[in-house]
Design a protein that fits this description.
The protein is mainly alpha-helical and about 160 residues long. About 45% of the residues lie in helices and about 10% in strands. The strands form 2 sheets. It has a two-stranded antiparallel sheet. β2 (about 40-45) and β3 form a beta hairpin.
Length: about 160
């Protein structure tokens, strides 16, 4: 099903169009290839979405991406700092993203980074009501409640 969105401000629509064009140029410059069966859409609500334009079958190759085009702790310009500090997993990746963002347009990942939100809402700053509503039924919810109760009882 196609979704149609209406831009209230022409300048914002122009921004979304430019951002998507810049991202596609970046992907091509990094050697990414994608099938004509895919459509990239940039919406104010959801950001960039990749949609299938037709029914895909198991085994269909819809995109190819060189490893060097992936922003990881190994491909970041901060690789040496990350390794020396012993950062790995999500912490190492968060540092790599912050480092690459600090380079602004000079980062080899600038075309990708401009699509990412500038901040993430994390449970540590949520109210207890938000935690109960948004994490209910997850392992993280149980961990959070245990940690919260420990903090309350020790405080």
């Amino acid at each position: 099903t196609a979704r149609l969105f209406v831009c209230r401000e022409n300048s914002h629509c122009l921004f979304l169009h430019r951002r998507l064009r810049a991202f596609k140029r970046w992907m091509k410059s990094k050697g990414l290839e994608w099938s004509d069966a895919l459509e990239f859409v940039d919406t104010p609500e959801e950001g960039v979405e990749v949609r299938a334009l037709c029914q895909l079958k198991e085994g269909d190759v819809v995109a190819k991406m060189p490893k060097e085009a992936c922003l990881t702790t190994k491909t970041s310009g901060a690789r040496k700092i990350i390794e020396e500090a012993g950062l790995d997993g999500h912490l190492g990746l968060a540092f790599a993203i912050m480092y690459e963002r600090s380079l602004d347009g000079d980062s080899p990942f600038a075309g990708y980074l401009q699509l990412l939100p500038h901040q993430e809402c994390v449970p540590i700053v949520w109210t207890l009501d938000e935690v109960n509503e948004l994490l209910c039924g997850t392992e993280l919810h149980l961990v959070y409640l245990v940690l919260f109760s420990l903090i309350i009882h020790e405080g």
